[in-house]
Amino acid sequence: MNHWSVSLSIARTHLLSKLKSTVTAALGVTFGIGAYITLVSFMTGLNTMLDDLILNQTPHIHIYNEIRASDKQPLDYLDGLKNDLKVISSVKPKRQPQKIRNALPLMEWLNTNPEVRGATPRVNSQVFYLSGSIEIGGNLTGIDAEQETVLSNFGDYVPQGDPSDLSGTSNNILLGAGLAEKLSLGVGDHVQLANISGELFLFKVVGIYQSGIAEIDNVQSFANLVNVQKVLGVPANHITDIHVKLNDINKATVMAEKIEELFTVSARDINEANAQYETGTSIRNLITYAVSITLLIVAGFGIYNILNMLIYEKMNDIAILKATGFTGRDVARIFLSQALIIGVTGGVIGLLIGYVLSALIDTLPFETEALPTISTYPVNHDPLFYLIGISFALLSTFLAGYLPSRKAGKIDPVQIIRGN
Amino acid sequence: MYILEARHIDKKFRKPVSFHVLKDISFGIKKGEFVSIMGKSGCGKSTLLYILSTMDTDYTGDLLLDGDLITGSSSDELAFIRNKHIGFVFQFHYLLAEFSVLENVMLPARKLGEKSEAAIRKAAMQKLKILHIDHLADKKASRISGGEKQRVAIARALINDPLILMGDEPTGNLDSHNSENVFQIFKNLKEQQGLSLLIVTHDYDFANRTDRIIEMEDGRIIKQ
Known about the structure:
A: elongated; B: alpha/beta; Rossmann fold; four-stranded antiparallel β-sheet
């Protein structure tokens, strides 16, 4: 209908003749939306980084053999003492191998399970790093480098070298950053290791591992699974840990219980290990939205104020428009479209400012030991935020414009004209 | 056949105190008739005019425009009737200050939307020419003199070629020269275009030169 074009042209003239208050009102929306985009992009970027910090280094389920005393002691097997109170002092755990029993069938079961994204075997062993006359005790973990890279972003923690160099049978090693510093070794150098029995092995350093946690980086190194089994002198079915990634992290607890039930192993899920991390994420999101909504409400009140003032000023115009045949709806439309024009222009400029600011933050240097591959502040440029931002701008300006517009539509022209 | 006919119009104000402002008003205006309403302040003549102009719907009785009953129509229908069939001139000009003279005249026609923008512009220029103010077309409405403003308001009232032109003391704010000017404009409209006019006025000189005077006192017509 042409109703809109007439109303819009009046709205435009009003806005242009009151350019100062128009700009002020639009700036309110611009700041609200701009701050929302900047905040939410930066906050969710940080959240994702913090989550990854935990999630990448922690498997959804960690399967291992826990050293602990048997639940049923020999005394419990005696039928004659069934109803008696038994007291055993100084119970010791049973001597048992560190390896997971039936590790290969367990691996196969995991890899064919549809809920499992992947399971990677590990072998932990105690070794000594030799440098001249110094011996440094530490861990050497055998991994399947290719799978590890895919499943746990292992590559993010290898700032120098390439984890894929570990595969193959040659004795290659990823040396912990702290160890490398102590031993004055770099990529391409060789390092001598001794197992617990004192046998010597020569490994070539193909990369540096840096988890960001000094205690780990001072003792931990990685090599190919087969080579570590060779160092230990054990067969290929000797696996001490299995790391499982699921398709759905929320099923970790159920899955871990099932594994413990089916196989005689200990299985610890991520929720048990890191219960607090999810709480932190949701609270940070809550703060982001609370701040943004507050900003937009303030902007909404600005628009409400300015429209109310404008309507008060334009009483005579409204009266004559109605006297010459404009309906209440036409008049309301004039003021509502002013609110929406302010909302759209303010909102779009706000999106642009938000984008520019978050892009700027994205380039600021952010060096952290914890995440060696990150060099700038993390920012999440999710298009969804921009959609939410502009929808919110339109919604708040519509609400702010609706009440004054309705008031304008209901003005009785006779009252105004007789009043003059 | 009347262009505008009022039958037994009755109106009471309830606020601030109950007051019977119009009592059994009945009269008609023929096509091409120039009628003035006179009476003391507070006799109800303006109230009657706002009822006749369809802006005030709080009354009893019947109002007919061109033979059709318009009492009881919806507010949208009444807005359409005001837009198309009734031209209105007030004591105060009520021009939109930010718009040009031409745009002010065009607005009611743009609302009606029966003609193209170009045709409306042409018609508006023609109305301005009839009133000898076409040279002001592009000026801001706030930048012209009082007499000129009232003539622009008349041009705006005429833009949709209404059946009747109503005026609520249209010369009340004007000096004698400009009052005479406006009277001549009304007379020409009646004589050359056969327009019906209903003008509320205090000015005896003005009223005496119209076709008919309706005199009111205390809410009644005492002479017509």
